Amino acid sequence: MRWVPVRAxxxxxxxxxxxxxxxxxxxxxxxxxxxxxxxxxxxxxxxxREVCLAGLWDFEMRVRAALAHALARxxxxxxxxxxxxxxxxxxxxxxxxTKFEAWEKTYRSAIxxxxxxxxxxxxxxxxxxxxxxxxxxxxxxxGSLPYLYEIAQRADRLEVAxxxxxxxxxxxxxxxxxxxxxxxxxxxxxxxxNRHFKREARVVPGAIDRSLLEHLTVPNYSPSERxxxxxxxxxxxxxxxxxxxxxxxxWYLSFRTQIRKLPTIQxxxxxxxxxxxxxxxxLQWDQLDxxx
Length: 292
Fold this sequence. Notes:
By secondary structure, the chain is mainly alpha-helical. It folds into two domains: about 1-35, no CATH class; about 35-290, no CATH class. The protein has helices spanning about 35-75, 85-90, 100-115, 120-125, 135-140, 145-150, 155-165, 170-185, 210-215, 230-245, 250-260, 275-280, and strands at about 5-10, 25-30, 95, 95-100, 265, 270. Strand 5 and strand 6 (about 270) form a beta hairpin. Helix 1 (about 35-75) packs across helix 8 (about 170-185). The protein is globular, with a radius of gyration of 22 Å. The model is unreliable at about 20-25 (pLDDT under 50).
């Protein structure tokens, strides 16, 4: 809904303003708004998705490698045997089956769907089932990685989390799911500039390097409504993960550059779209250590 920013707001006392139904905008457009304003926003948002997808793809590849490395050290077929996993998690019931049973269906389905891939066909013909963990992580969807991560042994979860600068395994698991949502919004062409994300990405001080993310632990760090479900906190976590990984990254610079290109849509005395007001950014965010 790229048109929303140029539609007039309903007055707080208006009988048509219904918070439960989220009807905050009137049908009429602000005087002076044009189709060109919407085109500018769309162009900006499209490029923003490209930039975010590049960082998310990089993060995804690193998570796949970290998971495979941690599990393979235990056993190359660790994903097939609950003895090599966290049994307290893997044997929990969920939807009439254990998490491990659900996981088995997930990875077997991934193998069937990729059976025509050359490397999968070669492994199946030469060695048969099961496929080793390094092959499994390559055919799994990004959305399936959190399921494997959550049933891995705690030491393995911590190894993966530590690789991205996180000291609490369950917290990293929650953020991993947030990154999956983030990637899905970008890959499916959803807008980012004024989106509320499905999950709130809360930052726990004890789980991270406070020199880079401490600003996200301060109440009301942004003037945006519900900032923990906005773009900034998700992008900040992604920048943090990539920077803390041993391979390093300059993705944060690409993101910073694109946000600075947010078009100024001036109607009346105030800009309609601002990083701090619409995307959960702190004021003077680009002066923080995370982005410099």
